[in-house]
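does this look right to u?? iron/sulfur cluster version
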Amino acid sequence: MSFIQPTFRHPDLPVNDVGFTKKDYEGSLSTLCAGCGHDSISAAIVQACFELSIEPHRVAKISGIGCSSKTPTYFLGNSHGFNSVHGRMPSVATGANLANRDLIYVGVSGDGDSASIGMGQFAHVVRRNLNMLYIVENNGCYGLTKGQDSATADVGSKSKSGVANLYTPIDLASVALDLGATFVGRSFSGDKEQLVPLIKAAITHPGFAFLDVVSPCVTFNNTPASTKSYEYVREHLDASGTFDFVPMKQEITTHYQPGATEQVHMHDGSVINLHKLNQSYDPRDRRSAVDAMFNAKERGDVLTGLIYIDPNTQELHEMIETTNKPLRNLTEKDLCPGSKALDTINESLR
Amino acid sequence: MANIQSVNEFVIKFANVNGTGSASANNLFAKAVFRMGIPVSPKNIFPSNIQGLPTWYEVRVSEKGYLGRRGGVDIMVGVNAQSLTQDVQEVEPGGYFIYDSTKRLDPRLLRQDINFIGLPLTEICIREYADPKQRQLFKNVLYVGALAALLDMDFTVLKDLVSDQFKGKEKLVAPNIHALELGYQYAQDHYSCPLGIHVKTTNKTGDAILLDGNAALALGAIYSGASVAAWYPITPSTSVVDAFAKYCNRLRIDPGTGKKNFAIVQAEDELAAIGMAIGANWNGARAFTATSGPGISLMSEFLGLAYFAEVPVVLMNIQRSGPSTGMPTRTQQSDVMICAYASHGDTKQVCLYPSTPKECFDFGADSFDLADRLQTPVIVLSDLDLGMNDNMSEPLSWDEDRVYDKGKVHTEADLEAMTERYGRYLDVDGDAIPYRTYPGTHPTKGSFFTRGTSRDEFAVYTESGEKYVENMQRLERKWETAKSYVPRPEIIPGKEGGCRAGVIYYGTSDYAAREALESLTKAGLAMDALRIRAFPFNSEVEDFISEHDLVYIIDQNRDGQMRSLLINELEINPAKMIALINYDGMPIVARFIHGFIADHQGSLSGGQTGEQKTGSA
Ligand SMILES: Cc1ncc(C[n+]2csc(CCOP(=O)(O)OP(=O)(O)O)c2C)c(N)n1
Ligand code: SF4
Ligand SMILES: [Mg+2]
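got this back:
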């Protein structure tokens, strides 16, 4: 069951640039387990869309199957959503985006949904640089089917079953980076400070933006011996740096020490201010990002933050040269070649 | 030996090695006969291989307009050493075997009851051309030139065709015409031309065109506004998307910007292909995918989602011989069942069965209106025979005033004016078809969550068994509504006053069935016939069956799938439904249909009434 939340609106609620309160970005009441990391991610999406002043109906939410894939019901209730089939969210998102390039596409998936059954579609949507935000709510297990190990579980990690995982994990962020993703970030459902700006930057990115968000499953995989538990992740967080995201319409007011901060300019005029912790690592350089991920992994840490960004990128529509208008808005006049053209075709076939 | 004597009524077959350029020469022959005003029906019989294996091209020439396979070969052009034995055997007594006489024919191959015509093709080519590639290519053109003399073809027609074929590459015209002349001259000098079998210019093609069904489907999709195509390569469906791309690049470029008013994505597999088509349709564009049997199996889960969540999508299935990889380059109608009931759970899918390129075009276009109107998948079932061969067809036509029927979709204004709560799955009009909204339509109204899980009329998740059953019953009522929207069957009366026996067929059995019906009438076995064009079956199909004591159902698959579908859907006594089947990978032939029905009728009047026999090929 899902519950419709009351629509009572407090008169003092702050309103964003397009006239909506945060409530307008919420969805039905969540039916996930209390404390599930996925709910925190939903809240971060609500916050990010509110702060970005996106009209809610300009977003389309698409997901696969799993506890994580259920969450689009729990945020952005004024947006259309599509809970599709297990592991196939990328294809549905691709088709939707082809039909209307003007909407914002938020894809939600799980580690089972993306790293196992949907690994193929995940790889190919990265290659196509589809303009979307792709979030994997990564709990190292199959929540909805009661806790089996997923392909992102670390070797030796133990879920509630108590049996250590034997197989090497798939790191989706590394895979995305290797396949040419133009925006890769990682975060933790428990770190709203980092997650919200990351989502905002990812939505603004004019191509495929991938976020691997570690999101503990409190019911099946939050044990002391699990590497996807709240405790473990908190202890092993290693931020690539801090950053803030300045949307296009906002003036840049803060001034930073030169050297420690660099600016990434987005195509729409937004700016990402990167405050680097480690001078030798540049998130605009793919090799540097790959090294940083590898080094963190060697230390047993979870590297989080904005890992890689290439703001000057060509998304799918640009690659295949589709018209600037949404295809779904084209009419008979644009689409039907007419009977004269058909006569010519007939003539060529005689 | 009595030679076959026939003007404009014969079967000629070319035996070649694939990858040697024979296809365009053989095409040239068929098109020349067509341009002489004589109906032709060419068929490619090719291996699942790129180079080096035997391939055949069979052309039925028929002034009477019989376009199905007849069975038997009157003239064989046997230029493939690998298949000589079988090719010689196939010639009808009194027929002709034309071969490359550069090497002497093995005397063991000779038959006394047919004519052998040797043409030193290799020898002439070695003499005339230095380049080995040209030697190979022009060998084919040479035999077409020889056929022009032997069959008394109009040489100017051939020359014009060559000029058309090489438009833009004029340098190639002269050498090709030269090769035609070399062949022509050799045949004139060495044989008494024309043969007993030959052609004569007539006017039996009218305004007909020669087109393959796949290109016609693609054109139908273009005309009805499909703007997104997602696919994964598989024979024999690949040329649907190839043709879509070709014609879109010609007809769908925005004049202002030079950009494309269409998008084509080669997906990673068929699951992704149909997922993309569904995503695009959900978001308001017309989108389709094309595939063949193995792809249908992969798309099955998504087809269930689209059925249950009521998302329109068009799927073109160009059937080939299954199961598994089967005979991937041979034809069959063996996906009737898997398409009709595609996916798990209680599902039924709307299917269309075109018979001609014109019908491919019409159904290609109508399928999008139907899918949008009914908010459900529509599967167009063509096959390799129709899809990949040039078929003579009525010209394609389009009504300038036609507007796309996008079905029930609420606009922003509709939503703005709405005072009641919008319910995605509410049956407002009583026809069980609810109203859709596209994402991004209205800031606060009309959004809903599309899902494959059960939900109430407002698209809110529920596990209430009652709500689930209500929804499934509405889908069942929608299926009833669909019966009045899908194309009606074509009924071909046998004789005045009706007949006791009927024949039901669909798709590419059309040509052979019509020919057989005519010959059966001549033999005193007139039968009424009905050509099914769509599933669900509408009342005419049911009436036809109940009005006849006995019905033959022609299926090009082993299990008589259409027969089973009819029996299951219409709850008919199987005893009156006689399966007439052919599934060897070659299109069914008229002689076989005639023979089967004549035998069966004979057995009935021979006192064995009631004893049924099922056919096999
Ligand atoms: C084709 C198919 N196979 C299996 C399932 C069963 N199933 C549902 S959710 C799920 C795993 C989900 O895991 P994940 O994507 O990690 O999501 P989580 O529940 O952990 O958030 C599986 C195997 C299904 N729905 N469809
Ligand atoms: S089972 Fe795990 S993933 Fe699913 S809702 Fe509960 S805590 Fe979250
Ligand atoms: Mg999971």
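Chain B has four domains: 6-198, 211-393, 408-487, 490-604. idk if thats expected tbh
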